[in-house]
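Example (one chain per record):
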Amino acid sequence: MISRMSTSTSGSAIPFAPTCGSSLELIRDLYQKLEPQITKSYRPHVTYVPPAESPREKKKSADKESHAKGGKLKVARIALGAIAELTKRKDTKKRLLEASKREAVSNAQDLEKVTKDVNRSLPNLPGTNS
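Predicted structure:
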């Protein structure tokens, strides 16, 4: 067993014989003293520290609070969402209807153009307008 002499601040020598148990206690004691400094200054492995309360929990608590106040905010949010959805559907339906009308007009014009071209190319056929 190795016996060492440790000097304290007063200068008196205290005999110190390390054993496994005392070394482990010493390490634990030092770690407990130094841990706050270590965690504050150096944590390269930690890139994201989640918030104490998750966003979902915050939303739930906010919904509970609004429900406790009568739920007016929640009802207004639902109503505005429904109105926005109906407006979006109406606009989509209108846009599709306009597109189909334009396509129908375009098809009619193409058909008329083709008929005129055929009539011009075959002027001697009976029943054609020349």
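Caption: The beta strands are 4-7, 13-16.
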